[in-house]
Amino acid sequence: MAVFADVRKIALSLENVEEGTSYGTAAFKVAGKLMARLKEDGDSLVVATTFEEREEMMKDEPETYYITDHYLNYPLVLVRLSRVHRDALRDLLGRAWRLAAAAKRRTPAKRRSRSA
User: Fold this and answer.
1) Buried b or exposed e, range 79-116, using 16+ CB within 10 angstroms
2) Radius of gyration of the chain (CA)
3) What is the pLDDT of residues 27-40, one digit of tens each?
4) Whose C-alpha in 33, 42, 46, 109 is 20 to 30 A from the C-alpha of 2?
5) What average pLDDT score do residues 60-73 get?
6) Nearest Cα to 34, choosing from 80, 62, 79, 75?
C-alpha cells in the first residue's frame, strides 16, 4: 500500500519535477506537462502512461489500475493508492516522468513572426 506522501517523495526525487495543482488537487509536472495528480477521491492517482501499458495494467491488476469514461481518450491510468505497492508506484512514476519529459522535447518552440 502507498500513500500520497510516497507519491510526493518519489515524484520530487525526479529531475525537473514541479509540484502544483490540477483540477484543485496536488499535481506533478515536468516543464508544465502533467505527469501525475491526485484524483478528487483522495485514494486514486491519475498517472500518464501509454494506451498499451494502460490496457496491460488494467488486465493484470484490475483492482489496482482502472479507468473511468472521462479518461478513455487520454493516455492516463487511475491507480488506487490503497492497492499499489511502493515499488510499482516508483516504476509507474518513472515511466510517467519519461513520457512527460519526452512530450516536452517534442513540443516545437513558438516562433516569432516577422513584420514585413
Assistant:
1) bbbebbeeebbbebbebbbebbbebeeeeeeeeeeeee
2) 15
3) 999 999 999 999 99
4) 33
5) 96
6) 75
Unique residue bearing C-alpha cell 488494467: 58
Neighbours of 45 (CB within 10 A): 26
Q: Which three cell numbers stand for residue 16?
A: 525537473
CA distance 28 to 71: 18
- Euclidean distance between CA atoms 101 and 107, whole angstroms: 10
Q: How far apart are CA 28 and CA 37, in angstroms?
A: 6
3-state helix, strand, coil in the chain (%, to 5): 35, 25, 35
What is the structure's pLDDT at 111?
Answer: 46
Supply the pLDDT for residue 12. 97
Whole-prediction pTM: 0.86
4-103 has CATH 3.40.50.970 classification = no
CB 8 within 8 A of CB 26: yes
- pLDDT exceeds 70 at position 88: yes
